[in-house]
Structure formats: C-alpha cells, structure tokens
Amino acid sequence: MKPFRLFAQTDEGKNNTGIKMKKQNIQISDLYRLKLVSDPQISPDGSQVVFVVETMHKGDKKYYT
To answer: Does residue 6 fall inside a structural domain?
Structure first.
C-alpha cells in the first residue's frame, strides 16, 4: 500500500504550505461547502481506495452522498 498524506489546518492558523492564514469565524454558509469523507475501502490488490463523500445542498437542506 502506498503512503498518503492527510492535509489539515493546524490550530496555529497555518496550512501545510507554512503560509499564515487569516482567522475568521465560521459562517452558516460555510457549512454548505463542507465535504464529509467516510467509509474508506481499499481494493483487494491495494492499488485503489474508494470512499463516500457527503455534501449538503443549500436549497433543500438535504444531505447527498
């Protein structure tokens, strides 16, 4: 299996590029842009991964996968 990197923002307000990011409060509209990733499954030969991505549609306020 090949290693992979998980990119996430740290508490210090810096991303993985080391660039200082402006802190701002989360707005309700930001929640609609989130993509929730879950249920990763590795293929039997280990060459591929499939996962579920869940998003929320602003118009009807429903979740889609």
So the answer is: no
Domain count, the chain: 1
Rounded to two decimals, what is the model's pTM?
0.52
Tell me the C-alpha distance between 56 and 34, whole Å.
8
Containing 38, the helix (H) or strand (E) segment is strand 36-42
53 part of a folded domain: yes
Structural contact between residues 18 and 26, judged by C-beta atoms closer than 8 angstroms? no
Q: pLDDT tens digits for the chain (65 residues)?
A: 555 555 554 455 455 666 777 788 888 888 888 898 999 999 999 999 999 999 888 888 788 88
Rg of the chain over Cα atoms, rounded to whole angstroms, equals 16
